[in-house]
Amino acid sequence: MPTKIAVLGAGSWGTVLANLLTENGHDVYLWSHSPEQVATMKQTHKNEHYLGAEFTLHDALHVTADLGQALDQATVILFVVPTNAIRSVAEQVKPILQAHRGRGEQPIIVHAAKGLERGSELRISQVLADVLPSDLIQGIVVISGPSHAEDVATHDITTLTAASEDLPLAKKVQQLFMNDYFRLYTNTDVIGVEIGAALKNVIAIGAGALHGLGYGDNTKAALMTRGLAEISRVGVKLGAEPLTFIGLSGVGDLIVTCTSVHSRNWRAGNALGQGEKLSDVLKNMGMVVEGVSTTKVAHHMARELGVDMPITDAIYQVLYENAPIRAVITDLMQRSGKPEFDFDNASLQKH
Ligand SMILES: NC(=O)C1=CN([C@@H]2O[C@H](COP(=O)(O)OP(=O)(O)OC[C@H]3O[C@@H](n4cnc5c(N)ncnc54)[C@H](OP(=O)(O)O)[C@@H]3O)[C@@H](O)[C@H]2O)C=CC1
Ligand SMILES: O=C(CO)COP(=O)(O)O
Prior knowledge:
Layout: E1 4-8, H1 12-23, E2 27-31, H2 35-44, H3 48-51, E3 62-64, H4 67-71, E4 76-79, H5 83-100, E5 108-111, H6 124-131, E6 139-144, H7 149-153, E7 158-163, H8 167-177, E8 182-187, H9 190-213, H10 217-237, H11 248-259, H12 264-273, H13 278-285, H14 290-305, H15 310-320, H16 325-333
Helix pairs in contact: 5-6, 9-10, 9-11, 9-12, 9-14, 10-11, 12-13, 14-15, 15-16
The chain binds NADPH dihydro-nicotinamide-adenine-dinucleotide phosphate and 1,3-dihydroxyacetonephosphate.
């Protein structure tokens, strides 16, 4: 029995996930807020701006700019817009779900975005829970892991995590997405999965910058390892399970984002390392670079929580205070010597 799924956001990731779910036999409606983009996709069967000319939309995939049509009788709603658009899209979804309430429908809400909301510092599942009351929905599941849209588009073998506090719901979502090239594992640590997903983008900007400046493999490994240390530190302080950070949405996503030319965060960092201005880099990218906004949120969050995040702070200085990259690297290296692990520090323990 096919499941009706509404995919909200027709950028690179939303389009590829909608295609995959259609391949898996589901009845999928891909919603874009742009009627012009929908008209072009219907005419060409492509989403060329985001995925190039090679990628073709599945014949059975419905594309629409009508949110009501996408949501009508959908049992799953997948949010794949950038973090800072999640709230406004959820606010458009809410009255439609309220109108459907009489039919007794309660869709599963899934999201695939990676960031922290500017201003509120909320994780994405928290933003969704803030807007969509629990009597309107079955629950919220996050899907996350090392997964560039460009590689999934060519059926490269890919593994993700489906995370929810409600394990049966995570298992349902796992089954919807699984196929011979896309494998999901479940996890109940939503905090760890969302924090790992958001903060790896910050470190990927740093990895790109090191590449742009000509640093070698030792330096990149140092950045990724110490980057993971600070991601884990803040995550555990927020209540995450430490093990999640050695999983797919921790080290897994950190590796792919810090090493792939597909990563918009890595590419932005690389361009900065080569001396381009941030405003030009973002203008030329034409796609979301989540790590730029997340760096600001994480920098403030670290201060509020009293967690040491020296790499994130250094990237903040480069992005928001115009600090020269080589100077912040020198400052990082000149900090006093420290133990690799502070085993006695309570902030490394969950409780
Ligand atoms: N690309 C990838 O490989 C992966 C991305 N992700 C995450 O998925 C999320 C989406 O990323 P991705 O698809 O790559 O982003 P893109 O930049 O490729 O596309 C973003 C899409 O969201 C739309 N959009 C932007 N603002 C709004 C809004 N206010 N209302 C409705 N639609 C809006 C854009 O429309 P328009 O064209 O009009 O601007 C565009 O269709 C991000 O959080 C990203 O980190 C996660 C895993 C992999
Ligand atoms: O999250 C991603 C891969 O897992 C995509 O990363 P970018 O947003 O840097 O392209």
